[in-house]
Amino acid sequence: MTTSSPDASVHVRDLKKQYAVHEKEPGFMGSLRSFVSRKTKYVEAVKGVSFDLAPGEVVGFLGPNGAGKTTTLKMLSGLLHPSDGVARIAGFEPRKRETAFLKQITLVMGQKQQLIWDLPALDSFLVNQAIYEIPDDQYRATMREFTEVLSLDGILKKQVRKLSLGERMKCELAAALLHRPRVLFLDEPTIGLDVNMQEAVRAFIRDYNERYGATIILTSHYMADVTALAQRILVIDSGQLVFDGDLARLAEQGKGGGKTVKLKLREAVSAAQLAAYGQDVKVDGLSVELTVPRSEVSARAARLLADLDVADLTVEDPPIEAVMAELFGATAKVEKEVVRG
Ligand SMILES: Nc1ncnc2c1ncn2[C@@H]1O[C@H](COP(=O)(O)OP(=O)(O)OP(=O)(O)O)[C@@H](O)[C@H]1O
């Protein structure tokens, strides 16, 4: 059942966030000096971001470390006040943190936990039931559903501190979605999990999106999360949105707009010989990979098939990891700072 409504839309206009950081020189004398004349440095973490999401849309929010992803999500969930610009989430202004707004959203941060460490997860769920005023019948129905989809049986009554990371993350997600929010901000929800657990979390998020028509903004360093869940990608770099479009179009930006041709040969060929057919040639025994311009894929493939003893040939877009590495390789952390005395 998909229950999308216009309420779950997200509108962001020219959102900005500047952090003030007080600088202190090292040592006792440094402390004394900064006590007398304090230097403030301003970090422009988000520099005017705009986008709109339709109800039920799932977007991957990507960018290098320090690009401004977490800061943006914190502003959208009302934890941080923007320095400028506006956001409207499900019809609300996040900075006001109205109860009705909080009932519509959730923010899950893979690196932070909201469950009470010394108690079983079930106790935290009951606390959330009270905070979000979830009616008993809805609470029971949601618990049944989550227990099944996330295989929570047997772990809900264990002290949270005794759960494995994967078990804890499943409980964190359940706790964060118990009130059935319509807009989800998921910041690295699968971080540190093993591959099977990542897949379980992904499946749960996909199921939740389909069932409740939830709008989702997802950041993840695991591209498998993004390719499995998001139709659309937003890329932020140094606080600015540098790409907004579908995954395929982002892939086209990689390898200088080229495609990857993969060959299985029956007879070995040297990298030097293959250089005539494309760039970035990689040879691993009888497996070969090279990049060819998009407009020439058919002609080059035909030449390869005619000239070499080819057992198999496939043409692929470059993996999204490669595209991101190419886009951000050297600019892993860029920030423009204004120093004021
Ligand atoms: N509380 C803060 N005070 C000062 N500067 C901050 C604060 N939080 C973040 N920043 C700076 O703002 C910029 C954006 O940080 P943010 O955490 O939003 O990036 P990110 O894209 O989420 O990075 P990552 O992928 O590493 O988590 C960085 O330069 C960071 O150092």
TrEMBL record:
Pfam families: ABC_tran (PF00005). Keywords: ATP-binding, Nucleotide-binding, Transport. It comes from the Bacteria. GO terms for molecular function: ATP binding; ATP hydrolysis activity. Residues 10-263 form the ABC transporter domain. SMART domains: AAA. InterPro entries: AAA+_ATPase, ABC_transporter-like_ATP-bd, ABC_transporter_ATP-binding, P-loop_NTPase. The keyword Transport applies. The keyword Phosphoprotein does not apply. PANTHER family: ABC TRANSPORTER ATP-BINDING PROTEIN (PTHR42711), ABC TRANSPORTER RELATED (PTHR42711:SF4). This is ABC transporter, ATP-binding protein.
